[in-house]
Amino acid sequence: MDRNKNKKDISNEDIPQNTGATVKRLLNRLARQKRRLIVAVTATLLSSAAFTVLPLAVGRGIDSLVAAVRSYDGSAGIIPTAVQALFLPVLFITAASLVSGLMSYVQQYIIASVGEELTLSFRNDISAKLNRLPLRYFDAHQTGEVMSRVTNDLEKVSAVMQEGLPQLVSSVFTILFAVITMLILSPALFLVVLVSLTISTAATGYVSALAQRAYGENLASMGALTGKIEEVYAGNRVVKIFNQQREMLSAAEELNQRQYRAQRNAQFVDFAIYPTIRALGQLGFIVTAVLGGRMALGGVITLGTVQAFLQYVNQISEPVTGAAYVVTSLQAAVAGAERVFALLDEEEESPGEEGAASSITEGHVTFRNVRFGYTPERELIQNLNLEVRPNEMVAIVGPTGGGKTTLVNLLMRFYELNGGAISIDGQDIAKMPRQEMRRRIGMVLQDTWLFEGTIAENIAYGKRDATREEIVAAAKAACCDHFIRTLPQGYDTILSGEAAGISQGQMQLLTIARAMLTDPAILVLDEATSSVDTRTEMEIQKAMARLMHGKTSFVIAHRLSTIRNAGLILVVRDGDIVERGSHEELLRQNGFYAALYRSQFEAA
Question: pLDDT category, 552, cuts 50, 70, 90?
Answer without folding.
Answer: confident
